[in-house]
């Protein structure tokens, strides 16, 4: 009895650690992809545009160090987003919920939080390349987070 309870607690901790790693690596992977897209001018915004350049207007924030720090901060913030998905949507299977999650995140960041980021142009002032690229990146991020967490949760439920 005691052994079984301890094993269930370890499985629960294992699931939580998977959510943390999914969130961190999701943020890391997709913010690196966003940085590369910004470097090749597919988009006019990058992680540093949100994280550093909106509050700091120094030279180092526009270089590789600013981009690296921004990627790390996005990766850490992504852990919270992964837990949000875990607590609200973990039981829903499929790719469509991840797509919707990514689109909702995009609207929250670019529409609702727009006044917080003075360095980012409004949606109506963005070029079409930036809108399409960022929406696609957020969709891919949402699918990555959503599908990975739902799969891990289903795997956990099937083991029990």
TrEMBL record:
The chain crosses the membrane at residues 20-44, 64-88, 95-112, 132-153. InterPro entries: YqhR (IPR024563). This is Uncharacterized protein. Keywords: Membrane, Transmembrane, Transmembrane helix.
């Amino acid at each position: 009895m005691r052994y079984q309870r301890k094993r269930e607690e370890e499985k629960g901790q294992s699931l939580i650690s998977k959510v943390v790693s999914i969130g961190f690596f999701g943020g890391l992977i997709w913010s690196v992809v966003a940085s590369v897209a910004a470097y090749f001018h597919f988009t006019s915004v990058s992680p540093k545009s949100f994280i550093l350049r909106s509050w700091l207007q120094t030279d180092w924030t526009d270089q590789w160090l600013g981009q690296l720090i921004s990627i790390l901060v996005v990766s850490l913030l992504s852990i919270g987003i992964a837990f949000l998905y875990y607590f609200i949507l973990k039981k829903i299977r499929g790719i469509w919920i991840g797509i919707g999650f990514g689109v909702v995140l995009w609207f929250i960041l670019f529409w609702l939080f727009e006044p917080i980021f003075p360095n980012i142009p409004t949606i109506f002032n963005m070029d079409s390349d930036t809108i399409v690229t960022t929406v696609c990146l957020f969709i891919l991020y949402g699918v990555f987070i959503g599908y990975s967490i739902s799969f891990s949760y289903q795997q956990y439920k099937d083991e029990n």
